[in-house]
Amino acid sequence: MMDTTLAPTLPVPAADRAPAPAGAAQHAVADARTYVVRTLGCQMNVHDSEHMAGMLEQAGYVPASAADAARGSADVLVINTCAVRENAADKLYGNLGQLAGVKRGRPGMQIAVGGCLAQKDRAGIVDRAPWVDVVFGTHNLDALPVLLERARHNERAQVEIAESLQVFPSTLPTRRESVYAGWVSISVGCNNTCTFCIVPHLRGKERDRRPGEVLAEVQALVDQGAIEVTLLGQNVNSYGVEFGDRGAFAKLLRACGDVQGLERVRFTSPHPAAFTDDVIEAMAATANVMPQLHMPLQSGSDRVLRAMRRSYRSERFLGILDRVRAAMPDAAITTDIIVGFPGETEDDFAETLRVVEASRFVSAYTFQYSQRPGTPAADLPDQLPKAVVQERYERLQALQERISLEENRAQAGRRVEVLVADTEGRKDGASLRVSGRAADNRLVHFALPPAVQGLAAGAGAHAVGHPSDARLEEHPHPLLPRPGDLVTVEVTHGAPHHLVADSALAGGIYAVRRTRAGDAWAQRARARAGLGGDDHGHGHGSGQGSAAGSGAAGGPVVLGLPAVRTR
Ligand code: SF4
């Protein structure tokens, strides 16, 4: 279960598409149309945007320049919407209002709106914003290039929404955001009926991909340089029910353990009702499955869980955490919680505080309930006054902040292996640190040894990908890690939302392990900086596919899997 209500704050940020690589202009056909995909919402949307970008590039579009991307100006601007965020519609129409002016100043520009809100509002989007050219839904991502073409040709807006899934998104061309880590969908849709959630209505019933297909995509990613994969589904624990194997998810985790070169496997999201011990056993027994679990609680009150139509109860939830910790003592567990569900009493809320205190979450994505049109809970009586919800929310946040701080402070002195990221540390330049994720997915900011401080773009001197960034060199300084490399450091202190590991400053623990992922990052960064090489990392595929548009920096990775039509 994706619990998309909560997903906007999950670790991977929804962000504008990556700006155009510096080398793109050299390769692009002179009159190629440019595009930007703007993403709102959860990981599923971020991954869908990777498919949208891949399809556009396969159709001959090239990424817009960084300046155009920032302005929202391109020949084609795609907004991948979210329907579960509070004020999602207001936000979309506000965005579209601004874009009307941009479009007036850029003849031929097209605006496409996809994702959950498009699936929900359909032609209503064009009624409210007639300057929108294309509306497409969650079930027909593959139609985007054709709809753009048709809208241009017919000079009128195209609205096409499918009622059920046409093509598994995973089989579409994909332009991956990251070379060292990738998302792999194992299922789409959800069979649950949580009363606050609109996902089942917009994404449909759960459809599972076959394990062989999932593993082929995992292998292809690894062959292209990735060392981390996150398996994605709205409810990963029900994976396999469609093809009659209730143990399929545990088996899939174990099979990932056999993929050579795959160092880190994560998944999101499980559902407490369907989370079985075979999954815990598979996690503990599979060396590359990371000691991390995102387990959505939503409420600690059994009465509220019943009203939410979530079939587990608080004691079962706590029992799962106990068993996970017994099997993986270092597991970091995070959660989602909704405060102020209709009818929630002070006693119900006290139950949530009790369960949160007992759960010792490393972090929690906490949300104030708000009515989402189209969900059953929106029509429930006893909607709570905003002030009541706000006050409870603040109390919950204060409790969780204290627990997060205690849990992270307890990490001091621990040795962690950090997968270096290229997007996580906004203050790295000023703090002269580099950032990444520990095995348990905690965010770690760590100091470089004095000898190499300032050499990396993220830790000082330059913009990332600047040609003088020393990490782009063929043989970088052995102490200088690149995104995708693994660095072992010792935690020196914990803050509520991250760890700091400055062991290198005093000559303490600091070891860089070069990885294929780091090589792939450097290769792509060199291409983007116009220093040669191709942009696809280790783009040999697994015999399944090669990078489409080879030679075009920023081109899509085509997995070459057959585009399986669903029933
Ligand atoms: S219906 Fe429930 S389980 Fe399914 S996506 Fe929504 S919150 Fe998750």
From TrEMBL:
PANTHER family: CDK5 REGULATORY SUBUNIT-ASSOCIATED PROTEIN 1 (PTHR43020), MITOCHONDRIAL TRNA METHYLTHIOTRANSFERASE CDK5RAP1 (PTHR43020:SF2)
Annotated spans, Disordered: 529-567
Record bears the keyword Cell membrane: no
Bias kind Gly residues: ranges: 540-554
Gene Ontology cellular component list: cytosol
Amino acids binding [4Fe-4S] cluster 2: 190, 194, 197
Cofactor(s), by name: [4Fe-4S] cluster
Family assignment from sequence similarity: Belongs to the methylthiotransferase family. MiaB subfamily.
Signal peptide (residue range): none
Note on cofactor: Binds 2 [4Fe-4S] clusters. One cluster is coordinated with 3 cysteines and an exchangeable S-adenosyl-L-methionine.
Compositional bias per record (Low complexity), positions renumbered to this chain: 555-567
Keywords attached to this entry: 4Fe-4S, Cytoplasm, Iron, Iron-sulfur, Metal-binding, S-adenosyl-L-methionine, Transferase, tRNA processing
Matches recorded under Pfam families: Radical_SAM, UPF0004
Transmembrane segments: none
UniProt enzyme class: transferase
InterPro entries recorded: Elp3/MiaA/NifB-like_rSAM, Methylthiotransferase, Methylthiotransferase_CS, Methylthiotransferase_N, Methylthiotransferase_N_sf, MiaB_methiolase, rSAM, rSAM_horseshoe
UniProt name for this protein: tRNA-2-methylthio-N(6)-dimethylallyladenosine synthase
Ranges where the Radical SAM core domain occurs: 176-406
Binding site residues for [4Fe-4S] cluster 1: 42, 82, 116
Listed GO MF terms: 4 iron, 4 sulfur cluster binding; metal ion binding; tRNA-2-methylthio-N(6)-dimethylallyladenosine(37) synthase activity
Domain of life of the native organism: Bacteria
Physiological role: Catalyzes the methylthiolation of N6-(dimethylallyl)adenosine (i(6)A), leading to the formation of 2-methylthio-N6-(dimethylallyl)adenosine (ms(2)i(6)A) at position 37 in tRNAs that read codons beginning with uridine.
